[in-house]
Amino acid sequence: MLEKRRKPVITPDDIRADLDRFSRRAFLRGSLSLGGLAMLTGCNLSTDSGVDAALKAILRFDDKIQAKLFDPARLAQTYPASAITEPFRFNAYYPDWQVRGVPDDWRLEVAGQVTDKKAWTLDALQSLPQESQITRHICIEGWSQVGQWRGVPLAVFLRKIGADTRAKYVKFTCFDDYTTSIDMASALHPQTILALEFVGKPLTPEWGAPVRLRIPTKLGFKSAKNLRAIEVTNSFAGGYWENQGYDWFAGV
Amino acid sequence: MKNPAQASMRPAHSLPVRIMHWVNVYALCCMLFGGWEIYNASPDLPFLFPQWATLGGWLGGALAWHLSAMWLLVINGAAYVLYGIFSGHFKRDLPPPSPKAFLRDMWAAVCLRLPHKTGHYNAVQRLLYGGVICILVIEVLTGLSIWKPVQFGGLVSLFGGFVLARNIHLAMMILIVGFIVVHLALVAIVPRTLVSMFKSVPSDPQEANDA
Ligand code: HEM
Q1: What are phi and psi of A177, to 5 degrees?
Q2: Which of A242, B24, B61, B148 is 20 to 30 A removed from A102 (C-alpha atoms)?
């Protein structure tokens, strides 16, 4: 919902709304509200930056706790086909009429700490082993729905490209300008896949064509659609929402 | 306390209870006002909370507050429960009332004849306080369930799955708000209890009539 209200097309109104919504000030103390006033008084924090810094520090602490709670062997619940949500809700940081088609020269690029940096065609990805899953996609907004995805386990792909799996992060860049990144432990989880199919059909652009990440052990915004590049790296990469204040680990 | 003279020596509320009560009020306000903004991102009931009553300004900000204040709420709450058990506070001041005592005090309250003794809870208060403590425990457990539904899979199935756990979290929030409304009304009726929650005030002597 939140995503739908924001459009990349730029009109003065949009810029104003975006600035209001995402300025540091908004992150810190929100609008002038009863809650905001009460909490600031209660905190006795007089500057925006003080509240901001405190919240961000606690979010980083939360990320550490989440990484500790993450059990690489624990699987997300799977469901029977009858549980699949119909119709499945479209969600992106833009409305559905701005979905972008797959570029003609599309290849999945590979970068960072990997031995084989050759780019992948869709055919080449299809020739790798595939796994199917029916899992719950949980949005940070609170709604959730069950879907079916099929594709290459990311762990298989990372091994195939000779990734250094001791690196800390895997970063995803999309051709719709979305980005996100995950920790290596979650990247190697057996249910983390590079999905090529959604509910039995090849991905269409609104569901992330030609390849998307599907990671049921994290909140929905981590399952990046329309992938263009995967990078294995030791430098923290953040992401589109993470840079605005969503918690980076976002584990479920 | 059987001995009235001894009872009147102790303060109406011990210092730890007074401190933890006000820390809880602060933490719970952060949770509620932040939680309402989170609710607004995907409302399950046919209403939104007004923007002026929310905290954080947008979903990310509200989550930052909610996932920060939760530590304060849980640590303070756990300290309160441990204190209540080991100091004998729960046993002495908050035993669950018998239905008879509850009906008697409720009736007296309805007739506006329920006297308030500083430092002693009547049966209606005991049911309200015991109730809201249990509700807060459920609120924290359902909160953990929807925060980490995969890692705490067992807890989630205890609440009947992710969707139901989330609905219970919302329902408990409404009960907590209901408690706060009644609680504040009762404090408004007997304002001197408010003083006793801030500073050390001697308890009134108590006759042993509170089964
Ligand atoms: C500004 C808001 C609040 C005020 C002014 C307030 C005031 C008070 C007062 C005056 C008492 C003592 C009553 C007496 O002596 O008979 C009390 C006790 C209590 N309040 Fe509150 N309260 C507030 C918010 C809350 C909230 C949000 C909760 C939890 C949901 C809560 C839970 C309790 C409990 C459990 C007790 C009994 C504590 C014990 O003896 O262990 N209060 N409150």
Answers
A1: 70, 15
A2: A242
ipTM of the complex: 0.86
* Domain CATH for A223: 3.90.420.10
User: Which tokens in the block code for residue B55?
Assistant: 């905290």
- Give the list of residues 6+ apart from residue B73 with CB closer than 8 angstroms, or none: B24, B27, B28, B30, B31, B140
The continuous run of DSSP H or E covering B24 comes out as helix B15-41
Which residues touch B184 (CB under 8 Å, ≥6 apart)? none
Q: What is the 3-state secondary structure (H, E, C) of B112-148?
A: CCCCCCCCCCCHHHHHHHHHHHHHHHHHHHHHHHHHC
- Please give the distance, rounded to the nearest whole angstrom, from the Cα atom of residue B53 to the centre of ligand 1: 21
Helix (H, G, I), strand (E, B) or coil at B103: helix
For residue A120, being part of any structural domain is answered with yes
pLDDT digits (tens, 9 = 90+) for A98-123: 999 999 999 999 999 999 999 999 99
Question: Beta-carbon neighbour count of residue B39 at 10 Å?
Answer: 21
At residue A89, what are phi and psi to the nearest 5 degrees?
-80, 130
Q: Which domain holds residue A147?
A: 77-244
* Nearest CA residue ID for atom 27, ligand 1: B25
Asked, for residue A147, whether it belongs to a domain, the answer is yes
Test the A interface: residue of B52, B54, B150, B177 with most A CBs within 10 Å: B150
What domain count does chain A have? Answer: 1
Asked if residue A217 belongs to a domain, the reply is yes
pLDDT digits (tens, 9 = 90+) for A37-62: 555 533 332 345 578 788 888 999 99
- How many angstroms separate the CA atoms of B182 and A116, rounded? 67
Number of neighbouring beta carbons within 10 Å of residue B199:
11
- Enumerate the domain spans of chain B: 14-93
Residue A4 domain-assigned?
A: no
Residue from the list A30, A136, A143 with its beta carbon closest to the beta carbon of B61: A30
Rounded to whole angstroms, how far apart are CA atoms B85 and B47?
A: 40
**What sections of A75-197 are H helices per DSSP?**
122-126, 154-160, 184-187
Q: What pTM did the predictor assign?
A: 0.87
Contacts with B144 from chain A: Cβ below 8 Å: none
